Amino acid sequence: MHRTPAMNMIMREVLSRRGRTDVVKKVINQTPPPNQSYQGSLIRRGRENCDVFINYRRADTKRSVAPLLYDYLVRLGLNPFLDSKNMKPGDKLFDKINSGIMGCKIGVAVFSPRYCDSYFCLHELALIMESKKKVIPIFCDVKPSELRVVADGSCSAAELKRFSSAIEEAKYTVGLTFDSLKGNWSDVVTNAADIVIESLIEIEDEEHRTSRRCSQIPF
After folding, report:
1. Are the CB atoms for 110 and 180 separated by under 8 Å?
2. Which of 118, 117, 83, 78 is nearest to 98 (CA)?
3. Distance between CA 92 and CA 122 in Å, rounded?
4. Is 58 in contact with 84 (CB distance < 8 Å)?
5. Closest Cα to residue 94, out of 55, 120, 59?
6. CB of 173 within 8 A of CB of 167?
7. How far does CA 42 lie from the centroid of its chain?
8. How many helices (H) and strands (E) does the chain have?
9. Which part of the chain is the TIR domain (predicted)?
10. Percent helix, percent strand, percent coil in the chain, to nearest 5
11. 13, 48, 124, 207: which is the annotated catalytic residue?
């Protein structure tokens, strides 16, 4: 199994902070090729596409899960997308958001009590689902059954159907739950990061397998 030196280093760092499960041990024990070394944020450097798109309602979670997860993933050398971090004056909102989603490998959706009040949250979630990205839900102070899109006239009938479909799909996707009054912020962030990294490794492995199969096809 081929593994980039950067990904090996990231997994070793995760192991130093988290429990040493058999799955993660197996992943990081792949020795990188000789004469290759990890150079800081190797995965981020020189690449426009992000690894992880973080979808959240800023008014609910801007001081909690989403920015904490972003900062933690950056420290691990990954390239996450968070609107408050990645967008700058002059950027076209939908162009930047849509390109971030289409270029990412994984979406993390941080659901909160008023998540469904945000058109932008619903648009992002729908695009992530439609583009067949893997989605990791974090239900923060809200139960999956409490998420629903209300027909209040703020979007068209077609958009309402699209958003409702995305929410229903997310509700039946296994994720993390978090109670901000009782839970540990560090635990939810590191647990989410572990899932993100394991998912990225699975995607990388599948890409390598697909590449090998394609290279073996006679022309």
Report:
1. no
2. 83
3. 18
4. yes
5. 120
6. no
7. 18
8. 9, 5
9. 48-203
10. 50, 10, 35
11. 124
**Amino acid identity at 75:** R
- Look up 168 and say whether it is catalytic: no
Q: Residue 56: CA atoms inside 13 Å, Cβ hemisphere, count?
A: 27
Strand partners, 159: none
Q: pTM (2 decimals)?
A: 0.77
Q: Which amino acid is at 85?
A: K
Q: Tens-of-pLDDT digits for all 219 residues of the chain?
A: 445 555 555 555 554 444 433 333 333 343 333 333 323 333 443 346 899 999 999 887 556 799 999 999 999 999 999 998 898 888 898 999 999 999 999 999 999 999 999 999 999 999 999 999 999 999 999 999 999 999 988 899 999 999 999 999 999 999 999 998 898 989 999 999 999 999 999 998 988 888 777 777 665
Which two tokens mark 54?
Answer: 């973080």
